[in-house]
């Protein structure tokens, strides 16, 4: 995010900057743009707004991912969602979070929990398809579900799905807990990616075609390990919370005085 703005004498704002990877950015008429200490509504017909590129994606082909640029875009004061003057910047204060960044960050936990729910729906669909296929497909005179190599995969897929559901319910109830939201996204999304891959494996060559939606589920879910914060950033958030001692729940787990579930 490189967007800067300055306030004019009449209270309007002038935006300059650009941002890659904006969901629906290539088709949006109205968008919310965050600067360092404010957020604005920008309309796509404002002079100086450009949609530089629409990316072609591996999955999620309806997503319309855009690269947006703002060159001296005049934003009228009526379009300000919020704004707070920053104190004059010194080297130290530049490193501090601004109100806009804090405001944006409070949505990240709930977004990650919501992405986990999307992933659970994808996992459920992949498991359903794989179970049905394994009961119908006959090899060596038996349905392939009778081979442990296949049925144990299904057992593992269901176990990971159920564990993900339990974690999701807990994170949903505490969605402002950013470490728990990160834990949930990391666990559910990486497991769903694995579940989709295993479903495809169970289906053999037909899984790799588009006769069944499993190849699509696999391509679509891959984004969730990147968008909304990558797996690596989820791990960064979790370990930071643990080592800084913020993770009271985990500390109490270790000490055995747990309010275990909610
Ligand atoms: C389909 C799609 C839709 C998107 N929609 C939006 C949107 O609507 N709005 C929006 O703002 N963004 C959106 N994004 C952007 C998305 O959030 C970012 O792509 C994502 O956060 C990763 O940032 P990056 O691509 O700059 O990766 P980079 O930061 O360049 O990371 C590259 C690699 O380095 C790793 N890495 C980076 N820093 C660290 C670190 N400190 N420690 C360990 N590893 C690290 C990353 O995990 C990754 O593996 C979208 C992206 C995609 C693909």
What would you say this structure looks like, in words?
The chain is of the alpha+beta class and 262 residues long. The chain folds into two domains: 4-84, Butyryl-CoA Dehydrogenase, subunit A, domain 2 (Beta Barrel); 106-255, Up-down Bundle (Butyryl-CoA Dehydrogenase, subunit A, domain 3), CATH 1.20.140. 48% of the residues lie in helices and 19% in strands. The protein contains eight helices and nine strands. Strands 1-2-6-5 form a four-stranded antiparallel β-sheet, with no helix packed on it. The longest helix is centred in the last third of the chain and has 31 residues, at 178-208. The chain is flat. It binds flavin-adenine dinucleotide (FAD).
Fill in the keyword field for this structure.
flat; Butyryl-CoA Dehydrogenase, subunit A, domain 2; Butyryl-CoA Dehydrogenase, subunit A, domain 3; four-stranded antiparallel β-sheet; 262 residues; single chain
Shape: flat
Q: Architecture of the largest domain in CATH?
A: Up-down Bundle
Using DSSP, what is the number of strands? 9
Provide the CATH superfamily of the largest domain: Butyryl-CoA Dehydrogenase, subunit A, domain 3
Q: How is the main sheet built?
A: 4 strands, antiparallel
Q: Uncertain segments of ≥5 residues (pLDDT<50)?
A: none
Rg from alpha-carbon coordinates: 23 Å
Report how far the terminal alpha carbons are from each other: 36 Å
Proportion of residues in extended strands: 15-25%
Quick structural gist:
The chain is built from 8 helices and 9 strands.
Explain the layout of strands and helices.
Blueprint: E1 4-7, E2 13-22, E3 30-35, E4 38-43, E5 49-54, E6 66-75, E7 80-83, H1 91-94, H2 99-105, H3 108-136, E8 138-139, E9 142-143, H4 148-173, H5 178-208, H6 214-222, H7 231-243, H8 248-255
Antiparallel strand pairs: 1-2, 2-6, 3-4, 4-7, 5-6, 8-9
Helix pairs in contact: 3-4, 3-5, 4-5, 5-6, 5-7
Bound molecules: flavin-adenine dinucleotide (FAD).
Flavin-adenine dinucleotide binds at residues 21-23, 57, 63, 65, 223, 226-227, 229-230, 232-233, 236.
């Amino acid at each position: 995010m490189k967007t800067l703005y300055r306030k004019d004498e009449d209270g309007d704002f002038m935006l300059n900057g650009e941002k890659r990877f904006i969901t629906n950015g290539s088709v949006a008429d109205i968008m919310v743009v965050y600067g360092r200490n404010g957020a604005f509504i920008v309309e796509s017909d404002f002079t100086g707004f450009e949609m530089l590129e629409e990316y072609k994606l591996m999955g999620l082909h309806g997503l319309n991912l855009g690269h947006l640029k703002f060159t001296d875009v005049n934003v009228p004061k009526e379009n300000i969602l919020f704004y707070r003057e920053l104190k004059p910047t010194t080297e130290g204060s530049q490193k501090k979070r601004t109100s806009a960044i804090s405001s944006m960050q409070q949505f990240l936990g709930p977004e990650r929990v919501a992405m986990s729910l999307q992933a659970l729906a994808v996992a459920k669909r992949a498991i359903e398809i794989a179970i049905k296929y394994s009961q119908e497909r006959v090899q060596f005179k038996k349905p392939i579900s009778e081979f442990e190599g296949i049925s144990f995969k299904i057992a593992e897929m269901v176990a990971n799905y159920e564990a993900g559901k339990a974690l999701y319910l807990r994170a949903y109830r505490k969605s402002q807990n950013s470490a728990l939201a990160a834990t949930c996204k990391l666990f559910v999304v990486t497991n769903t990616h694995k579940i989709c891959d295993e479903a495809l494996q169970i289906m053999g060559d037909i899984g790799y075609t588009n006769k069944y939606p499993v190849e699509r589920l696999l391509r679509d879910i891959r984004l969730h390990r990147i968008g909304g914060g990558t797996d690596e950033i989820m791990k960064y958030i979790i370990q930071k919370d643990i080592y800084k001692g913020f993770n009271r729940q985990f500390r109490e787990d270790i000490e055995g005085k747990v309010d275990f579930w909610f």
